[in-house]
Amino acid sequence: MPRTRSPARLDRILDAAADAFLELGYRRTLLSDIAKRGRVAVGTVYLYADSKESLFELVLRRAFGEAPPGPDAMPFRGSAGDDLIAWVWNRFGEIRHFPVLEAAAASARPADPLPEMEQVLREIWAWMSRYWQALELIERCARDWPELHLLFYRQFRRSVFGLATSLVHRRIDEGAFRRYPDAATLVRVMAENIAFFAMHHHVRPDSADLDEDVCRETVITMLLAGLAVPAGSAPVQSLETA
């Protein structure tokens, strides 16, 4: 009698696989590790994915919001390496949705620039929070999947950072924000603060129990305070001439 495949068991296996890849990285993770965490036999894992590579792809696809395959499509046979990279790149294109940031970067200085920037920060936070597992998988497994690392850090993230840097640089130049020596560094500091509490805290033993809502409000308040021009300060010097 053929062995059945259930969506609930697939979810448990994918949860176990995600935990293992995030903790151990891709290369060090064994199918036996995943089976143990998922409380199934190794043979059962092969009913759902034909290899560790295919299982990693399933975990990554799910983390990016794609529905798992149905029972008739299992065991899942993953894409070739280049095909997976192409899929990830296309997926980044589909989810690269920052309308508030894009509108702010294209607009003139508003009467009060801080509420505009607050909405930008909240948009970035929401995006990182939604896709945190996919982003953590790419970062954690970067040494074993260098193409994924290159795709995210040098192509996707660089373009988003470039847009945010352009906005912050212009607002500083307009006198709307406090002057810092380098706008690009300032944006990185802001992004890394958001990334830790929106993404990384999920996999840090000393931070996993943090309340994300409280963290979000605390971090955004802190970042906005750092952008405010101090009362009574001299006119802000342009970064172009600083």
In short, what is this structure?
By secondary structure, the chain is mainly α. It contains eleven helices and no strands.
**E-strand count:** 0
Distance between the termini: 76 Å
Any idea what the radius of gyration is? 22 Å
Shape: elongated
Give the integer mean of the pLDDT values. 89
How many helical elements? 11
Q: What's the SSE pattern?
A: HHHHHHHHHHH
Low-confidence stretches: 235-242
- How helical, in percent, are the residues? 55-70%
Q: What portion of residues belong to β-strands?
A: under 5%
Structural commentary:
With 242 residues, this protein is mainly α. Helices cover 63% and strands 0% of the residues. The protein has eleven helices and no strands. The chain has helices at 7-24, 31-38, 42-45, 52-63, 81-95, 99-106, 113-130, 132-140, 146-173, 183-198, 212-227.
Fold blueprint:
Layout: H1 7-24, H2 31-38, H3 42-45, H4 52-63, H5 81-95, H6 99-106, H7 113-130, H8 132-140, H9 146-173, H10 183-198, H11 212-227
Helix pairs in contact: 1-2, 1-4, 1-8, 4-8, 5-9, 6-9, 7-10, 7-11, 9-10, 10-11
Question: What attributes characterize this protein structure?
Answer:
242 residues, mainly alpha, 11 helices, disordered C terminus
